[in-house]
Amino acid sequence: MSAPTAEVVICGAGIAGIAAAYHLAVRRGVGDVVLVDELPPLSLTSDKSAECYRNWWPGPGDAMVAAMNRSIDLLEGLALESGNVFRMNRRGYLFATADPGRVPQLVRAAEDAAALGAGPVRRHDRADSDYRPSPADGFEAQPIGSDVITNRALIRRHFGWLADDTVALVHARRCGWFSGQQLGMYLLERARAKGVRLLEGRVEGVETTGGRVSAVKVSGAGGSRTLSTPCLVVAAGPRLKSVGRVVDVELPVFCERHAKVAFDDTLGAMPREAPLTIWTDPVRLPWSGDERAELAGSEHRGLLGELPAGVHGRPDGGGDSRSVLLVWTYDVEPVEPTFPVRFDPAYPEVVIRGMARMVPAMTAYVSRLPRAFVDGGYYTKTRENRFLAGPLPLDGAYVIGALSGYGLMASNAAADLLAAHVTGTSLPHYAPAFMLSRYEDPIYRARLDSWTDSGQL
Ligand SMILES: Cc1cc2nc3c(=O)[nH]c(=O)nc-3n(C[C@H](O)[C@H](O)[C@H](O)COP(=O)(O)OP(=O)(O)OC[C@H]3O[C@@H](n4cnc5c(N)ncnc54)[C@H](O)[C@@H]3O)c2cc1C
């Protein structure tokens, strides 16, 4: 009996591996793709996401904006052909500040994003300006770019639920959210219909012949097996570094633990049709005297000082849902990924207190904390927070990963890029920005030291 074979073996059935299988099999006609994972599809990180997307990214250069625009083009195409099974909306990202000193910064961010290809800036500094909010559902026929709103009466008229002292908003428009699980399952179904097979097991090693990949070793419940293949794609999410070693590559990635909080907003503090809303000012939480004294002597004493900007949230779910989803990355360190992931029990309270600075009606939840669900996983990142999609030094080995906190939104562009590398077809202009070989360029490496804005929220 001949040994089992595959044209491409993909290690990892998260959104990166599934999107890669879809782009190889469905869009590029590659037959006999095998997706290997010891866990059910999408279950390690890809079902922990806040499921948002944006074409709003910083430079240097237009690579991130161009890749995200490509990803959103692909997502919109998938939404249209599927009857929007993954419920993609275009509510936008709403950046808010109460600091008049920060307004020029927000305006500059909008202008920079426009220069990079995110779309034009519209200024609204009069109460009768023609600012149009986003519809709650759907994504078609909506403006791109951003609306900068600096008239306080206009802010109150459209966003009266924000803090009274909010002085400026930037509403970035080619942004919103969708169901990541539905997107992933749709891509997987389409891929399976084109012959992609799922194999339960763990990739443990590779064999090489003449200096290139010739087989992949997989261990599973039924023992070990070897799949003959000329091509391995590493899509191992938070295990990228360890699986990289299987092909003798030390990938320049690390992990951060990130969590989100969901609870029922029974008081209706945040309107159901709200965009994803982000407070761009640092926050000092208003603790009582007793709370201050208790915190001062505890491991949480850092919560007494100024906490970073970026607390954000959005309504979650359609129909009768009252759920809101909040995120605040006030405390991240590189960590070794371990599972199950553990989170600070104080996280929900801290996030709700932070969110109450932006949405004052949430203050009512501070004295009587709602039943909150905390969930999350790891952002797997490169130092400058740009993903990897392309060849590895070993012939026949490729990587798609380091998708950080944006893997749901970027996976289609990353997988499209990966598939172009694997099939040897023409590459988009932004391809070099996401290849591992970028780190061989001394000019690029020198730029990393002064790389200020990674685009992480
Ligand atoms: C709290 C939080 C909020 C987020 N919010 C957003 C958001 O709003 N928008 C967005 O776009 N993204 C968001 N993300 C990021 C997004 O979830 C990730 O970027 C994405 O899920 C990464 O996908 P992946 O396929 O690379 O990794 P994973 O989903 O982790 O998949 C990797 C797979 O590889 C498998 N694997 C590993 N090693 C092996 C091996 N040796 N053999 C076989 N299989 C192996 C694992 O079992 C796993 O199934 C968020 C993430 C978190 C944690």
Shape: globular
Number of helical stretches of at least 4 residues: 11
Proportion in β-strands: 15-25%
User: Rounded to an integer, what's the Rg over CA atoms?
Assistant: 23 Å
Mean pLDDT over the residues: 96
Q: Determine the structural class based on helices, strands and strand pairing.
A: alpha/beta
In whole angstroms, the N-to-C terminal distance is 53 Å
Helix content: 25-40%
- Cofactors, ions, other ligands: flavin-adenine dinucleotide
How many extended strands? 23
> What does the largest sheet look like?
10 strands, mixed
The poorly predicted ranges are none
Distinctive features:
457 residues, globular, alpha/beta, binds flavin-adenine dinucleotide, six-stranded mixed β-sheet
Topology of helices and strands:
Blueprint: E1 8-11, H1 15-27, E2 33-37, E3 52-54, H2 63-81, E4 93-97, H3 103-116, E5 121-124, E6 146-149, H4 152-158, E7 168-172, E8 175-177, H5 180-193, E9 197-200, E10 202-209, E11 212-220, E12 223-228, E13 232-234, H6 240-246, E14 253-264, E15 276-279, E16 283-284, H7 289-296, E17 306-307, E18 312-315, E19 323-327, E20 334-335, H8 347-358, H9 364-367, E21 373-382, E22 388-391, E23 397-401, H10 407-423, H11 442-448
Helix pairs in contact: 1-5, 1-10, 2-10
The protein binds flavin-adenine dinucleotide.
